[in-house]
Predict the structure of Fucosyltransferase.
Amino acid sequence: ISSTPFLLVMFSVFILGCIVTAFFMYYKPSPTLLNHLLESSDCTKNIQHVDTATNDKNMTIVLLWMWPFGQTYEMNVCSSALISDGVVIHHRDIAGDLSNLPKSQRPPFQKWIWMNWESPTHTARLPGLNNLFNLTLNYRRDSDIKVPYGFLVTADTVEDFVPPSKDKLVCWMVSNWSPNHVRSKYYNEFKNLINIQTFGRAFNNYIADKDYNPIMASCKFYLSFENSIHKDYITEKLYFPLSLGTVPVVLGPTRENYENFVPRDAFIHVEDFKSPKELLADYLLLLDKNEELYLGYFKWRRHFKVNVVKFWAEHTCKACDYLRQKNEYKAFNNLNKWFWG
């Protein structure tokens, strides 16, 4: 068998390899594409460095600069139709000296989006951020891109809600414990007045993820106590018990603030009573004995159901939707005053 065809094939492969190598050595992407955003079939992707992407006119392209808390998640669940580029940056992952932020010159059309779900008390105030961003993505109702921890939606059908059976009166699940928290001081007084079953790392009573929902559903009341008190800072501590048929006893912003998110008869606010000692414990014991009064806290379930926001994919999708619909220029020059006051 002649070796000539074999040699011709090998020579062709060698020439092709040289051409490909030369292309990658000397090809320089257009500067207007640098610091551009990774594209997916739908909306967003994550990248730790600057990459290039073709600017498809039928696609909204969003760069998630850092995985929030290092947690990866699927991002092929968004929809988009128009071009509008943005960079989503999670506050808690920004270095104190801002050294891990994008270094390239920001294109004029590109919006930087400040993303944060911690309260001001638990958010470090970093220098150099006040005039850096174009948009805010936050739980607050006055943020540009509003993503609360949960929300109510209209139920598909109107029917009476029957809560699950209960074998616990009052429950509380806590991992982050500080004696300086308002909620800790309230609990220390409240626990002497009524039986409270506690769970979580703070009480050396760890529960597995699979046990969380069954335990929550088995409690008549749940202490939905926030770790700090700020405007609109109403977290999953409210929405999880609501979704599982448990009445939340809330400690956080004012009752009026809660009523911006859920009906007034869906929860009990500690401010409804002068003190734990005077009224709250007695009221919960009354509801425990009076089923009609207790079931009154579920009347809203005839018309609404609870949607607990899924971290973090829903947030980047919201950013994508916002950029798709609004492409006007916008700057945000008072982040410090707006968030920290």
